[in-house]
Amino acid sequence: QPAELLVKAQGKPAPRMVWYRNDKLVKQDDKVQLETTAEGLESTGKIMFPAIELAKEGRYTIEAVNEVGTVKAEVPITVLCPPVFTKLPDNVEAVEDDVVEFKVEASGKPAPEITWSLSDVALIKDERRTIQTTSSEKGYKTKSSLAMKDVQMTDTSDVYRIEARNKVGTVTHTVALLVSMRMVAPKFLKT
């Protein structure tokens, strides 16, 4: 998504505009475009990002400079990113009474919240299901797992929906659980 900052300054003579990111001079390239226009005593400085990305986040400073002096203005740029799945679980085939686990990872900024649902009903921890979710220290990644114990034939074809959501967007993924009957060797009941 494109983004731009525009700053106006006045001086005699009209000032030239210089941009810095985290105290380093910003140079124009294919990801950053700089533009300065002057009309009379007024100058306009513009920094444009054709497609803003997380790497361009930081503290931006613009200096308006002429022979008489310099003024500075600072603005932080925070880049928000919609969630994306970075690790997805596959469908699981299990045998009755097995323990199964689905694991998922998503990243985004802010870190996405991950929820699990079955037939559009949000899952919570119960006697058979455990959900664990953690976010990384940097705050961009979230890991979540859904573990089930004592799976049964009645769990077959259950489709679990995983949703990763933050204030910028939402992504979903579904996985299925296929449970087969546990085979038991024959034994005599009475002899």
Tags for this model:
191 residues; mainly beta; 5-stranded mixed β-sheet; 4-stranded antiparallel β-sheet; 16 strands; 0% helix; 60% strand
Overall shape: rod-shaped
Radius of gyration: 28 Å
Major sheet strand order: 9-16-15-11-12
Number of helices: 0
The profile of the biggest β sheet is: 5 strands, mixed
Task: State the share of residues found in helices, binned by percent.
Answer: under 10%
Strand percentage: over 45%
Number of strands: 16
- Sketch the topology as an H/E string, one letter per element: EEEEEEEEEEEEEEEE
The end-to-end span amounts to 77 Å
List the uncertain runs.
Answer: none
Oligomeric description of these chains = single chain
What class, by secondary structure content?
mainly beta
Please state the average pLDDT score.
92
Description:
The chain has a five-stranded mixed beta sheet, with no helix packed on it. Strands 3-2-6-7 form a four-stranded antiparallel beta sheet, with no helix packed on it. Helices cover 0% and strands 60% of the residues. By secondary structure, the protein is mainly β. The termini are far apart. The chain is built from no helices and 16 strands. It has strands spanning 3-10, 16-21, 24-25, 33-39, 42-49, 58-66, 69-77, 81-87, 92-95, 100-109, 113-118, 121-122, 129-135, 141-148, 158-166, 169-180.
